[in-house]
Design goal:
single chain; 265 residues; Rossmann fold; seven-stranded parallel sheet; four-stranded antiparallel sheet
C-alpha cells in the first residue's frame, strides 16, 4: 500500500498545505511518495525530499506544467495512479480543481475535506457547513482525497527521501493572457448574456489562449473550455500543418483562441 501526495508549490518552494497533507498520508499507512510536477521546480522537489516520513519524491519537469494547469497536471497523476492506493491533495483552490478531474478519469469517488483518518479506508469529513461530522468508508481500489489542512499538523522536516525524475505525459503547451476587461455593459461580445451582465452586475473578461500539442489533448481541452467558458473566436497558426494534424488526428496542432468569462464586479 502506497500513498501519493500531490505537492502544491510555486516551483521555487513548497506551499505549507503540502506538509499537512503528508501528515494525513502517513496516517493512511504504507509508504508515502510526493509528486512535484512543475517547470524548473528543483527547489520545490528538494524541499519535498526533506519532509519526514516521505520515502520518495517523484519529480516531473515540463514547460507545460509551469503554471499548474489542471488538465496537464491531471494527465501526470492519472498515469501514475495505478501504483497507489491513495491519492491525496490539499483542499485548496488548486487541489479542489485537480482532484475531481483525477477521480473522474479513474472512475472512482472522491472524499472531500477529510479532517481525520480512522483507517486506510475510513475517514471523517464535515457536513452541513461543519455542524456535523460524517464517517465515510471508501471501497474504491484507489482512494482520491482532498485534505482539510487545519485537521492535521504540519509534517516535520529533517527527512532525506529518494528522488526520481520522470518524463512528462504528452500535454498541450498552454499559455493564457488577459487581453481585455470589458466594463461597458452595452458592448458585451456575447448578446445572449447581455441581460445577465446588465442585471447581475458582471463584467466580461476576455482571455487569449495559445495551445500547441496533439490532436487528442487539443480536442479534450477545447471541449472542456466550451463547457466552462464562451469561446468567441478561434484562429489557427500554421494552417496547413494544423489542418493535416486535425485530419490525421496526430501531433502538430497549434492555435490561438479568444474566450470570455464573466466575473462579479
Amino acid at each position: 500500500m502506497k500513498t501519493l501526495v500531490i505537492a502544491e508549490h510555486d516551483n521555487a518552494s513548497l506551499k505549507p498545505a503540502t506538509l499537512n497533507t503528508v501528515t494525513a498520508a502517513l496516517q493512511c499507512g504504507g509508504d508515502v511518495h510526493v509528486l512535484v510536477a512543475g517547470h524548473n521546480a528543483d527547489p520545490a522537489a528538494a524541499a519535498a525530499a526533506q519532509i519526514s516520513g516521505v520515502t520518495k519524491v517523484l519529480h516531473i519537469d515540463a514547460e507545460s506544467l509551469a503554471h499548474g494547469i489542471a488538465e496537464n497536471l491531471t494527465a501526470q497523476i492519472v498515469a501514475l495512479a495505478t501504483g497507489y492506493s491513495h491519492l491525496l491533495f490539499p483542499a485548496t483552490a488548486s487541489g479542489k480543481n485537480v482532484a475531481p478531474r483525477v477521480a473522474a478519469k479513474l472512475d472512482v469517488g472522491q472524499l472531500s475535506d477529510v479532517t481525520k483518518v480512522l483507517s486506510a479506508d475510513t475517514f471523517e469529513r464535515p457536513i452541513y457547513a461543519g455542524n456535523a461530522i460524517a464517517t465515510v468508508q471508501s471501497l474504491d481500489a484507489i482512494k482520491v482525497l482532498t485534505v482539510r489542512t487545519t485537521g492535521f499538523d504540519a509534517a516535520a522536516l529533517g527527512g532525506s527521501a529518494a528522488m526520481e525524475s520522470l518524463a512528462a505525459q504528452n500535454n498541450l503547451k498552454i499559455t493564457e493572457s488577459i487581453i481585455g476587461f470589458n466594463k461597458d455593459k452595452s458592448k458585451i461580445s456575447d448578446p445572449a448574456l447581455s441581460q445577465l451582465i446588465k442585471v447581475g452586475g458582471y463584467y466580461e473578461l476576455q482571455i487569449k489562449f495559445s495551445l500547441e500539442g496533439s490532436y487528442t489533448n487539443f480536442m479534450s481541452y477545447i471541449n472542456q473550455v466550451h463547457s466552462l467558458r464562451r469561446v468567441t473566436s478561434i484562429s489557427t497558426i500554421n494552417m496547413i500543418k494544423t489542418t493535416e494534424a486535425m485530419a490525421n488526428k496526430t501531433d502538430g496542432i497549434k492555435a490561438d483562441f479568444l474566450s470570455s468569462i464573466y466575473v462579479k464586479k
